[in-house]
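Before anything else, study the sequence and fold tokens given here and see whether the fold suits the sequence. Record follows:
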Amino acid sequence: MAASNRIWQNIGICVLAVTVIGSIVRALFIGLNQAPWAFITVLAALLGTLITVAANLRIQNRNAQAPMKAEIYDKLIKYIFDATLPTPGRELVSKESLANTQAEITPELILWGSDDVLKLFMEFRQAGFTQTERPKIKASEDLILLLGQILVAIRKDLGYENQKISELSILRTFISDSTLSAYKLTVRSK
């Protein structure tokens, strides 16, 4: 709902700006009976500068947040892997340790994570990872796809375009093709 309001506000601001600029240009044309090329050049340069400054501020903000996001996402991925994919030869992480890690990363994720990552993490938690039994890798097709969606959303938030990476292709980096095919999952190419 807030995004919808923001879109309408932006549209309103754009319409207002076009109206004001159009009125100024029209007044200059009528008053001078000739094209005010110097004014139009300055106006175009000013508009271009404003657009460039706004884009640079957005990039600077993203770059300033990137290290913190990477740290939080690193913790999140480690937590998800500890909860779902125990590594052979490594001790299982205790339920208490998982609960502590979850309690630690949730506020950080709320503050620094993108909307998509936060939404998918909440779905992940609702899928039963706080229950008494630790889920196994053969939990369900939906759970495996959710894990892939989280990883793709993290990559997107960190600036990757993911044009050639789908949820299933990223899952293939740590889940065997035979396991994926057991769930009748096929890797789609993007």
About this structure: Residues 3 and 16 are 20 Å apart (CA to CA). DSSP finds seven helices and no strands in the chain.
